[in-house]
Amino acid sequence: MQESILVGVVDTPASRRAVEWAAHRANERLSRVELLSVVGGAIGTVGEGAVVAEAISLTHTLLEREAERVRAHGVKADTVVSRGDPVEELISASMVFDLLVIGSDFRGDHAGARSIHHGIRVAAGAHCPVVVVPDIDLAGRRGVIVGVDGSAVSGKLIDFGAAEAARTGDPLTVVNTWVTVPLPLNMSAYPADYLSGMQKVTEEALTDSLAGIPRLYPGLEVHRVVERGYAATVINRLARDARLTVIGSHGRGAIARFLLGSTSQEVLSSPSTVTVLVR
């Protein structure tokens, strides 16, 4: 079945990389692409009409320029300019697409928290998997990293990551981490059997999660990583050399859907590679 891809477009380097990423994927999978840009809602201020009209005109020009880049890959591309809140418009539009692609709005470690809010809010609220593309040159990178935690969504993450790795010929690395309970004040160190037990239990859980992959993808190169530490730290470290990272959202229900787990939020706050959020 043909895949449908929605790309949220703004005039930034990361957004241009997102368009290019979507175009390559669409060419490989015979997907259809729609480029969407949102002009902020009006509030009725005197003289606002001319400003909004000019913004809409410039946005149409931007979209047509980006659409031509997509079409250069032999992919059909439609363009839409909408009005309103960009986050709400992208979330609403995602209901009828298989994949939403956006550029990361992370602008460096010292840019402040405001620079990451929109992308995280879109990823948390969207109705389909969201691909967040940073302004990073991925030339020469290989590998798909999947972060799991044994929850119900972990199976979906592995399925998505394995399918991507098999399609592109990349190795698949599945990561699970563990952390200790706080050390009681009257203890100077953790018992060795406690630490080894945590490692063993986590390794066994990961093995169980991957049980069906060799049968589904017999030629796929699969690596397992089980470490003590925080998941986001380990995932981001491995992702520095990878082509793609796959993480999950635990959101459920009308309100919970807009909340990401701490790991996903931290990874998306400063992505080391193209990152897919699967719910």
Automatic annotation (TrEMBL):
Family: Belongs to the universal stress protein A family.
InterPro entries reported for this sequence: Rossmann-like_a/b/a_fold (IPR014729), Universal_stress_UspA (IPR006015), UspA (IPR006016)
Ranges for domain UspA: 3-134, 143-275
Name of the protein: Universal stress protein
Taxonomic source organism: Microbacterium maritypicum (Microbacterium liquefaciens)
Entries under SUPFAM superfamilies matching the protein: Adenine nucleotide alpha hydrolases-like (SSF52402)
UniProt-listed PANTHER family: STRESS RESPONSE PROTEIN NHAX, UNIVERSAL STRESS PROTEIN UP12
